[in-house]
Specification:
The protein is α/β, with parallel strands linked by helices. It has helices at residues 12-22, 47-59, 72-83, 99-114, 130-137, 156-164, 188-201, 218-221, 223-231, 262-279, 286-296, 298-330, 337-340, 352-362, 382-392, and strands spanning 29-30, 92-98, 119-124, 140-145, 147-148, 153-154, 171-175, 204-209, 235-240, 252-258, 345-347, 364-365, 371-373. It has two domains: 2-45 and 312-392, Aspartate Aminotransferase, domain 1, CATH 3.90.1150; 65-296, 3-Layer(aba) Sandwich (Aspartate Aminotransferase, domain 2). Helix 6 (156-164) runs parallel beside helix 7 and helix 12 crosses helix 15. The model has no long low-confidence stretch (mean pLDDT 97). The structure holds (2S)-2-hydroxybutanedioic acid.
């Protein structure tokens, strides 16, 4: 059976995570996988989540099946978070998913079933796992240029001109905020132009929303999606609770959709339910129920928002401190862009051999494309880190 299988190619980010775990050097620094870390390098369970889990443990009286769509209160809470408290929800539906990744996959399957010949346009660069997920769904992939690595900013004109060449009806995968891996986001005016283009060419927007609350704030980060939802008849969103609630291993997320009318919304959710049932039948419950309690219990919601703001503002400070340290080392503003980018990631302009040298000689782990997780920058040891990076430049 298995003799003809080729060796698998390890996922670059997960392989780096394993390699870091196996490194016994005490001073090692993890700037790799996208997990929030506090000043001590830990990823603790959020206090609001811990409290909600206690409540859940005490109050839950059954483990009976819920159903493919998962918890309705959780789905409503996610609709509220993504589309806003004042959104008209008659054309919006949601299904619980196994993390943001699961949402990407079930939405891709749904799209493939309804528009089999459409291509999906993906930013270059993008989160590496987008490629296998969309390949597995069988959707033809095309790339739009997104990032100018010389200027360290979005190459908006090139992006627009590529999208103008898309066939009417194609899909466009957009990072709703905190672009992974570059940290370079579109400005609101640029989002408006992309929305106009989607409208004029009937391009279908597919948002990946993995970092809501890590950029400028929960509502601010959703401005892109809300702008599109005001203008366009249809879109989908893969939303994750991994980062903003720290629920990584609980695999909690939602697949959300906006349809042209209520009947289409119901039909689309019905088909999504079929996709879920034929994949894994039903999503896990714990993370979604915990999230629902956090989002709908006033005291927990307040506590969570404060904790989220604490993570966000710490990453902003880390960005500034790192940019400042690099300014001193390089006597230039070459790294100032790090301070202005959004969310958990930015890219350093380093070659493969420089990245390998940082890992092998200094115990500093960053992804092979130069992506760093700014939450992992060592607050107490920023100077040593900047020295090491400057030494390989
Ligand atoms: C990342 O980009 O590092 C995270 O989204 C974790 C992952 O699954 O790759």
């Amino acid at each position: 059976m298995f003799e003809s299988l080729p060796e698998s190619k390890p996922d670059a980010i997960l392989a780096l995570m394993e390699r870091f775990r196996g490194d016994t050097r005490a001073h090692k620094v993890d700037l790799g996988v996208g997990i929030y870390k506090d000043a001590n390098g830990n990823t603790p369970v959020l206090a609001a989540v811990k409290q909600a889990e206690k409540l859940l443990l005490e109050s839950q009286d059954t483990k009976a099946y819920v159903g493919p769509i998962g918890s309705r209160p959780f789905c409503d809470a996610m609709i509220n978070q993504v589309f806003g408290a004042n959104a008209k929800t008659d054309r919006i539906r949601a299904a619980q998913s196994t993390g943001g990744t699961g949402a990407l996959r079930i939405l891709a399957d749904l799209i493939k079933s309804t528009r089999p010949d459409a291509a999906i346009w993906v930013s270059d660069p993008t989160w590496p796992n987008h490629v296998p997920i969309l390949n597995a769904a069988g959707i033809e992939m095309k790339h739009y240029p997104y990032y100018d690595a010389q200027k360290c900013e979005v190459s908006f004109d090139a992006m627009m001109s590529a999208l103008k060449s898309a066939t009417d009806g194609d899909i466009v995968l957009l990072h709703g905020c905190c672009h992974n891996p570059t940290g370079a986001d579109l400005l609101l005016d640029q989002w408006q132009q992309v929305a106009d283009l989607c409208e004029s060419k009937s391009l279908f927007p597919f948002f990946d929303m993995a970092y809501q609350g890590f950029g400028d704030g929960l509502d601010e980060d959703a401005a892109s999606i809300r702008l599109f939802a005001d203008k366009l008849p249809e879109l989908v969103v893969a939303a994750s609770c991994s980062k903003n609630l720290g629920l990584y291993r609980e695999r909690t997320g939602a697949a959300l959709l906006l349809a042209a009318d209520t009947a289409q919304a119901d039909r689309a959710l019905g088909q999504l339910s079929v996709v879920i049932r034929s994949n894994y039948s039903m999503p896990p419950d714990h993370g979604a129920n915990t999230t629902n309690l956090v989002m709908t219990t006033d005291s927990l919601n307040k506590q969570w928002r404060e904790e989220l703001e604490g993570m966000r503002s710490r990453m902003v400070r880390q960005r500034s401190a790192f940019a400042e340290a690099m300014r001193k080392r390089t006597n230039s503003d070459k790294f100032d862009y790090i301070a202005h980018q959004k969310g958990m990631f930015s890219r350093l302009p380093l070659s493969t051999s420089q990245i390998e040298s940082l890992r092998d000689v200094n115990g500093i782990y960053l992804v092979g494309d130069g992506r760093i997780n700014v939450a992992g920058l060592p607050e107490e040891n920023m100077d040593a880190l900047a020295d090491a990076i400057a030494s390989v430049l």
